[in-house]
């Protein structure tokens, strides 16, 4: 069966939390409060579904989000507009099956309509070469390194220029067409950070 990418549903948050905290040392653990923050503030929070089961998730926040991650703040000090991939987690049974590539294609399609850059980081501890190669294959480049003061982890800071953004801005400004594939997440009471349509 094919991989389906869709917005996360609130009743799936416990499963997302379990998936995150079983991911291993390349992903920072999180608690229910952090997950709730993502539910309420992430501009992009989607899951991958394969054979009816959750295969992974990706969370990304705009430069306007009230995020306190030191990696996020590092990018915000240097770039006026971006979408920041806070985490991507793939279930261990689905790694190597192309789920990460599908996610990055989808998040790039979402981002390039709204911001000029996509930002991410890869932790340098342990074997980060596959993750760096993965990001490099998508056109990310290293723009610096940052040591997270609360964890002591060194991160390679990566940015991808989104070549479609200037055309979208010139043609549509901040009023994207009102079509379903361009719509942003809707969470009751949540204020959208990025332009989503007319």
Shape: globular
State the separation between the terminal residues, measured CA to CA. Answer: 35 Å
Beta fraction of the residues?
25-35%
Order of helices and strands: EHHEEHEHEHEEH
CATH class: Alpha Beta
Instruction: Tell me the count of domains.
Output: 1
Average the pLDDT over all residues and give the rounded result: 88
- Give the spatial strand order of the biggest sheet: 1-2-3-4-5-7-6
Determine the CATH superfamily: Gcn5-related N-acetyltransferase (GNAT)
Largest sheet, in brief, is: 7 strands, mixed
CATH architectural designation: 3-Layer(aba) Sandwich
- Count of DSSP-assigned helices: 6
* Strand element count: 7
CATH fold name, please? Aminopeptidase
Radius of gyration: 16 Å
Portion of residues within helices: 25-40%
Structural class assignment: alpha+beta
- Which regions have little confidence, pLDDT < 50, spanning 5+ residues? none
